[in-house]
Amino acid sequence: MTQAVRHDSMRARNLELVLGEVSRRGPLTRAALAELTGLTKSTVSKLVGDLLDAGFLAETGPARAGERGRPGVEVVLSGARVASLGLEINVDYLAVCLLDLAREVRFSERRERDNRGSRPEEVLGELQNLAQTALDAAAAHRLTVAGAVLAVSGPVGDGVLFSAPNLGWAGVRVADLLHLPVPVTVDNEANLGALGELWFGAGPADFLFVSGEVGIGAGLVVDSALFRGAHGLAGELGHVVVSPTGPRCRCGAAGCLETYAGQEALLEAAGVASVADLLSALDAGARSATRAAAAAGEALGLALASAVNLLDLDHVVLGGVFAPLFPWLAPAAEGVLAARLGRLRGSVPTLAPSTVGGAAATLGAAGRTVHHVLADPGPFLNRAEAT
Amino acid sequence: MTQAVRHDSMRARNLELVLGEVSRRGPLTRAALAELTGLTKSTVSKLVGDLLDAGFLAETGPARAGERGRPGVEVVLSGARVASLGLEINVDYLAVCLLDLAREVRFSERRERDNRGSRPEEVLGELQNLAQTALDAAAAHRLTVAGAVLAVSGPVGDGVLFSAPNLGWAGVRVADLLHLPVPVTVDNEANLGALGELWFGAGPADFLFVSGEVGIGAGLVVDSALFRGAHGLAGELGHVVVSPTGPRCRCGAAGCLETYAGQEALLEAAGVASVADLLSALDAGARSATRAAAAAGEALGLALASAVNLLDLDHVVLGGVFAPLFPWLAPAAEGVLAARLGRLRGSVPTLAPSTVGGAAATLGAAGRTVHHVLADPGPFLNRAEAT
C-alpha cells in the first residue's frame, strides 16, 4: 500500500515535470526531456507514451502507426483531449471561452447585456445557457472539460461574491447558483485579468494589471504568481483614495478612484453614452472627451502613485476600457507619477496598454484550470482515460 | 570531492534542521529532535555535540563533565558564543543593540541627536563609535559577532540610501561609509521594524507594521516574511496620497500622509516642541493636542484604507511614536477605516500598538543576522570553532 502510494506520488511528480518542461519550452525530444528532468530515458518514454495515449501530448511531424518515438521526433502539448471553461459576468456583458490544453481558444462568445440591478438568479441562468453552448462545443470536439472558473466584478471568497456595487449585488453565492457538470471556481475579474495578461500577453513576471470597466480593479503579479492578500481581496484599486472630499462612491466611501475614472464617471464627464462614442469623440479630438480622459488619467495616476509607494512596482498594464483609451489617459497618469514619485524613487514605473484586450479575464479564468491540469495531470489523466 | 561537497551540504541541511526545531520549539531532548527531524539518533547526537562545542546550543539543568547526553537532558539555543549587531540611524537618534543567538539583548544604547541636514560622514562616524562600544561589549562577553544590519529611515537598495528627505540625504552609500570588522547590510527601518515586531512582539504572521517617526514607513509581513517589492522599496506608506491638494511634502509631492501625520506636522498642529510634550498635553486633555492627534489619526485612516484596499490586510500594528499616541490616534483612524471599508469588505482590520516599542527596528536589524545564522550555521560554526 505504502509502496503503491509512493509510486503514485512519484509518477504524479514525474508527469508534472514532463508536462511542465513541454509547456514552458515548447517542442522537445524524449532525449531532451530526459536531460531537462533528470529522469532516465526509459522513464521518460513510458510517461510520454501515457501522455500521448491520454491526448495530453502529440508528436510533431508526420507520425505513422508503429513508429512512435523515432529519434528526433518532438512532442508538444496537445489540445485534442482536455479543455477548460472560462466564464465572466461583467456589468455590461456575459462571456464564455473554451480553451484547450495547448492554450488554443476552441469556442468563445460574448453577450452584451446590462446587468445593473438585475437578479443574480436571472443573470446566472443566462450564463448557464452560455456555458452550455460552450460545453456542447466541447462535446462536439470530443474534449473533456476539466473545470470552469467564473470571473466576477467584485471581491470574492469561498464562492461568495461579497459585494459588487455596480451590479447591485452583495453576499451572492454565485458558485451555488451555477449548475454545471464540471467543478466551478469563482474569482475576481481583475485577478483573472492579470493571469490572462501573464499567460496570453506580453507582460513581464512582475506587474500590476489594472482592469478598467464600470468598476476598477487590479491584480498584482509577483514572480509570475498572484498576490492575493489575507482573504483574496487584494487589488481593490478602484477604492483607493484619490481625494477624501471627492464624489460619493457606491461603496459608501467618498473620492474613490472609481468616482473619477470608472466608466460611468468618464462617460458622464465626456458627455457621451458609450465607450464607442467616447472613442469616436477622442479620435475626432472633441475637447470635452479629451478633457474627461485626461482628468481620469490624472486620478488614475494619483491612485497608482499610492499603489507604487506601497507595492514598489516597475510595470503597470492597463486593461479593460483603459486599453483603447490608453493614448488619451496615459500621458496625464504618467505626469502625476513622475511628479509624485520621481524624487523619492529615482524612477517611474512604465505604463502599457494590455495586449490581450477585453477578453483578459475570461482567458485568465480558462487558463487557470489549464494551469492546474498541467501542474497535477494525474486525476485528469485518469478521467480522460476512463471516457 | 563531489562526495565531500555532498557531505557538507547534507551536514549544513541537518544543522539547519536541528537548530530550526530548537529555535521554534524551545528545549528538546535528542530523542525528540531525532523524531522531529527524521534523522537517526546517532546523527542527532553528533550534530548536537558539534553545536554544544561551538556554543550554539547548551544543555538545560546541571551538567557534569563526562555526563553529556544523559537521557532526559534537553538542549536549548545558547547565547554564549555568537551575537549580532543591530544599528539604526533615525532623524532624532542613533541606536545600537547587541543580540545573542538566544535572542537576549546583551548591550544596547540610544543616543538622542538631531540628524536633520547633517553630513552623512559625520553621522556615520558617530554611529561607528557607537557600534565599536557594542563590539567591545561583545569582546568582553567573548561573543563572536556574525554581522551587522543597519536600519535607515528611507528606501534602500544595494547598500545605498536613495532618499531620506527628512535627513536631507539622497543617494548616500551608507554601507561604504561604515567601517566595521563584520559584514554590514543596510535596510529600511520600517522593514526592520516589521521584523522586530514579528520576532519580538505579539503580532500574527500577517500584518502591516507602520513606523511613525519624523517620516512614516511601513513593512508588510506576509506569512512571516517581508514583502519587499521590485527593488525592496515597498511600504512607503508615508507618501500615499491623503489629499492631492494637501500640503507640500519634502518628497516633492503634495498631500502625502507624512504632511498630516508625520511627527513634525503633529507637533506643529498641537503647538508643542517634542513628543514628550505632546504626550503630557494629551494626558492633560489639552484640546489642541487631542485635536491634532485625531486629525493625524484621520489621515492615517485614509492612507490605511488605500493600503487595505490594495493589500487586503487584517492586522495593522502601529509602531514608533504612533505606539504611545495610540489611544488618541486610533479611534479616528478606526472611524475612517469603518466608514470607507465596512460595506465593501464586511470587516475592518484591527489596529494595535506595537508591543516592542521604539527599539523595533534596531531589534529587527540584529534579529536578521541571528535568523540568518540559524538558517545557515555552517560558516559561522566554522568561524566560531576557529577562534
From TrEMBL, chains A, B:
InterPro entries: ATPase_NBD, HTH_MarR-typ, ROK, WH-like_DNA-bd_sf, WH_DNA-bd_sf
Protein name: ROK family transcriptional regulator
The family this protein is said to belong to: Belongs to the ROK (NagC/XylR) family.
Residue span, HTH marR-type domain: 18-60
Organism: Amycolatopsis rhabdoformis
Domain of life: Bacteria
